[in-house]
Write a structure and sequence with these properties.
The structure is a single chain. With 236 residues, this protein is an alpha+beta fold. The protein folds into 2 domains: 42 residues, no CATH class; 167 residues, D-amino Acid Aminotransferase, subunit A, domain 2 (D-amino Acid Aminotransferase, Chain A, domain 2). The protein is 21% helix and 31% strand. Strand 5 and strand 6 form a beta hairpin. The two termini are 15 Å apart. The protein binds pyridoxal-5'-phosphate. The site of pyridoxal-5'-phosphate (PLP) has 13 residues, from strand 6, helix 3 and strand 9.
Length: 236
């Protein structure tokens, strides 16, 4: 009955969101005995109506999104509630989103907005923060790492100190940076602001590898190129 809600235009998608809520008739903080699991399907417009656009990012050194031992690895409402104010603050300062640092040392890079974060070193190596429990293990993060290997690039998952990353950007070792997530696929980052200092990444445009990964992943998704990873499933 609802099949016409599935969008077909270029760049659009059907967002599939499994959701679970507690349903005990109870007001209080305790585990529920009953739950409702349901799946939302929502048509979604093209994320980049005017094409891929690089954004500036504010490194948040006061608020934190999630902490070790908490629920940062899950798509849980509370994580997003904790992230809203910092996002508003970044926008007021002229930045598109926040780069989150870890909740213990406020020094190691975790995520960017509601995306995972990747840095390209010397046009050939993709480095991303290693999953530590407070980082959400995004499917796009996983797909980009796998595709990058397939494309002959090196990949590394390590703890990334923001001070080292800043120094590497200034030294020209980091040539590209981008966020990864289902909606945007990849979102190029062309500047970071940390403790009042702003540094530009690459030439300020969309990096070559960022574009290649975007084109390859969306090419596979829309059946425009062969799927070497066996990710495409025909829905009959
Ligand atoms: C906090 C957070 N991190 C990362 C991601 C990216 O995950 P995925 O690639 O699975 O969309 C999301 C997506 O919703 C997210 O909410």
């Amino acid at each position: 009955m609802d099949k016409e809600w599935t969008p077909h235009a270029e760049g659009t998608s059907l967002y599939i969101r499994p959701t679970m809520i507690a349903t005990d008739a109870h007001l209080g903080v305790s585990a529920s005995k009953t739950y409702l699991y349901y799946v939302l399907l929502s048509p979604s417009g093209a994320y980049y109506a005017a094409g891929l656009a690089p954004v500036g990012i504010y490194v948040e050194d006061s608020y934190v999104r999630a902490v070790r031992g908490g629920i940062g690895f899950a798509k849980t409402g509370g994580n997003y509630a904790a992230s809203i104010l910092a996002g508003v603050k970044a926008k007021h300062s002229g930045y598109a989103q926040v780069l989150w640092l870890d909740g213990v040392h406020q020094r190691y890079i975790e995520e960017v907005g509601a995306m995972n974060m990747m840095f390209v070193y010397e046009d050939k190596k993709i480095v991303t923060p290693v999953l530590n429990g407070s980082i959400l293990p995004g499917i796009t993060r996983d797909s980009v790492l796998k595709l990058a290997k397939k494309l002959g690039l090196e990949t590394e998952e390590v703890r990334m100190d923001i001070n080292d990353v800043f120094a590497d950007i200034k030294a020209g070792k980091i040539t590209e940076a981008f966020g990864t997530g289902t909606a945007a696929v990849v979102s190029p980052v062309n500047k970071l602001c940390f403790k009042g200092e702003e540094v530009g990444i690459g030439d300020g445009g969309i990096g070559k590898l960022t574009m290649k990964l975007y084109d390859t992943l969306t090419g596979i998704q829309f059946g425009k190129i062969d799927d070497p990873m066996d990710w495409i499933v025909k829905v009959k």
